[in-house]
Amino acid sequence: MAAAYQKAHASAVQPRSYQDKSYLRGFLGTVSDLQKDGVLQDVVLQVEGRWFPCHRLVLSAASPYFRAMFTRGMVESRQTKVVLQGLDADMFEEILSYIYSGTLHVSMDIVQPLYQAADLLQLDYVRDTCSNYMAMNVERSTCVDLYMFADVFSVNVVRKACLQEIARHFSEVASSEEFYSLSVNQLTEIISHDELNVKEETIVWKAVVRWVQHSREDRLHHLPSILPHIRFNLLTSDDTAAILEHPLVREDHGSFKVIRNVVNDISYLRKRFGMDTMEMALLLSFRKKEILFMNPREGKYISCSYGPKDHGYISAMTATSDDSIYMLASDLEDSSKLCMFRYEHVKNVWSRVSSVSAILNPGNHLLGYKEHLVEVDKMIYYIGLEQRRSDSSLRIRKYNRQTNHWQVCNGLNFSNADSFHGAVVSCSRHLYFLTKSDMCRYYPSQNRWDGSSHTKCGLTPSTAVAMGTEIFCTDALFTKTMVYDTWADNWQQLQGWSTPESPPPRASRLFVLENKLHILLETHSTGNVTATEGAAAPYLVYVYDRSANAWRDLKAAIPGNDYVVCGSMCLVAPHMYRPRLDELY
User: SS3 for 1-35, per residue?
Assistant: First the structure.
């Protein structure tokens, strides 16, 4: 009876597997201690004259390179001392530290040799970490060097990021010393791209001339193979004639012949990206569900419907350094989440790229007053200001575009009432939160905030924007403008609303367009009227003249479609691809 009961009971209980995570951590820690103490080591590796005692078992478990060396009958499997070729001793020390601890330290000054060592030793995690780190840290000053490295080692994620950065800043990059180190194949790949941000094709020609002249004897014979990648159909007849008379071309008959053939060829090559882009600000209309792209100085106003259809209210929007627009909007199927959408204007495509848990409860948003989307050092930060009865808190999440991953960051707590009326702005690789009585700065690399030691702006900022190393802010009524020098840690007051005979604006929004400070004002005019001769304009745009400390009216003809002037999502200024916008007009 008892045996039958036990048998029946045993059959009803399902077997389970248990994993002791503390054992796994402890095992790795013990292995690391054995290495530090020099215990049970059975092989010594020599790299550049330095000796590294190690454990064959640990090396074989970590690296297919060592596993093949020690387990497949190679001569090294019988040696107690092994010399490794093609490795940097300092980098191998870093690799060993990772193998025995699981922790990898990466910085820009070691990432390339560290990648090379990981590539040789077949350490996928180290290699992938290094490539992602390089891709995330591509800048104007490093893009050529990283591009050449990525080209040699076929690191496609880095090559792509570098080519985008080179194309975006081609004029500046083509004048750098690093540019002259490009191979002929690398040069032709770069100048072949449609995405070059140049206003005229002569910039490309002049870059080629400088590259050839940097090492004339070695490079002149490459000129005939380079010239077909210059788009002569985009040059004037005078420019083409000047090129044909250039000493480099006259000296090389092959080059002269190539240009004549290219010019006589009727094939049409597309304009470069920079020839068809314009820096434009964005306005958002909830009622019309449209975005207005505008450049008041050029008199350009183009509207289109925004975003895909599968989303609810828009929480925040921003433009990024790669000329994309990102938008956070509520998920129709899960109110606790927000969807991240990206607009690629060259392709005219909106795509959903990610989702994130909402910081604020559904319905607890107010046209972007409490939620912000800001790019800092190529990372996108979603920031929510949550107000409670006794205090307020700033909560932050960071989005990595390379890994498509969100991470919770350290936030801020406030006890004063002013914190709810604050502005968020990115400047000089830092994030700033400004209120009337506080200014706090966030250090992304350290995931920490500091405050209290900074001087205060003395007004309640409803809008703030960065230009260079300065931060500009003003209140909703545009009574005055304050500018903060992030280096000198001091504030200065600029001119504000200078039309005393008119009522102050209802709302204001600062933005930077073509490296000039602008402000958009929503006036007390009512109705959806388009600004016309003799009619009151519902929206005004002013540009600031710093030398005169005065604001100049640009006489903008903005159509009155209930655009949102307040909040964080209203005005950004990417380089927009005009042919795509014209299609949507």
Answer: CHHHHHHHHHHHCCCCCCCCHHHHHHHHHHHHHHH
